[in-house]
Amino acid sequence: MQKINDVRDRLIVALDVPTVWDAYRLVSTLGDGVTFYKIGYRLAFAGGLDLARQLVAEGKKVFLDLKLHDIGNTVREGVESLTKLGVTFLTVHAYPQTMRGAVEGRGDSALKLLAVTALTSYDDGDLRDAGYGLAVRDLVRLRAEQARSAGIDGIVCSAAETGIVREVIGPDMVIVTPGIRPSGSAAGDQKRTLTPAEAIRIGADHLVVGRPIIRAADPRAAAGAVMDEIVAAS
């Protein structure tokens, strides 16, 4: 596992809200208890890239979750542009050509690239429907091996596959796990979930939590509860 100096950085709150104003309000509510935020499609396409710049300027860390996938040259050019934002993490899909292009585009910048193996909303049946002949666990293992060979910095995978991924990538690459559901919360559309404590104990470095925090009656208290689980399991 990676050495993380500030335990607060282990929690990444997903800003899965419709507007930049909603995001700013949530960040203000969460205060200093949260240091790391994820910006995905919805917010990125509604002014979220400017928000990313602002959060970085304010000393926050940003995970830009765009899951890039295209021909290698196009990915390379896109990543080159995104290095200027100063974000910490950027996701790409774990296809070999895509990952190689992303690594070229990152160059010697501080941006860390994360490869998405299999979405946490997928199960074996979903993969069969998409034409894959592999079970989720086998596809995750293959993608993790390819990511390591391509020079990717870390893996995004379900907490349920964290143990497999750690075996493949060793101690030096980052593991980020979405689909985290605190004890007692609903799974929603995620099919492969674990609690924060469970995910930390099996080797996750960073946990992405969205709805259980942002839809809570008291988001700050909900984030604090997740952090307490992380600290207890660390």
TrEMBL record:
Pfam families to which the protein is assigned, alphabetical: OMPdecase (PF00215)
Domain Orotidine 5'-phosphate decarboxylase: 10-226
Record-linked PROSITE patterns: OMPDECASE
GO molecular function term, any single one: orotidine-5'-phosphate decarboxylase activity
Transmembrane segments: none
Residues the record marks as active site: K67
EC numbers for this chain: 4.1.1.23
Binding site for substrate: 16, 38, 65-74, 120, 181, 190, 210-211
Pathway(s) annotated for this protein in UniProt: Pyrimidine metabolism; UMP biosynthesis via de novo pathway; UMP from orotate: step 2/2
Keyword line: Decarboxylase, Lyase, Pyrimidine biosynthesis
Catalytic reaction annotation: orotidine 5'-phosphate + H(+) = UMP + CO2
UniProt function note: Catalyzes the decarboxylation of orotidine 5'-monophosphate (OMP) to uridine 5'-monophosphate (UMP).
Family: Belongs to the OMP decarboxylase family. Type 1 subfamily.
PANTHER family documented for this protein: OROTIDINE 5'-PHOSPHATE DECARBOXYLASE (PTHR32119)
Subunit structure: Homodimer.
UniProt protein name: Orotidine 5'-phosphate decarboxylase
Organism from which the protein derives: Bosea minatitlanensis
Gene designation per UniProt: pyrF
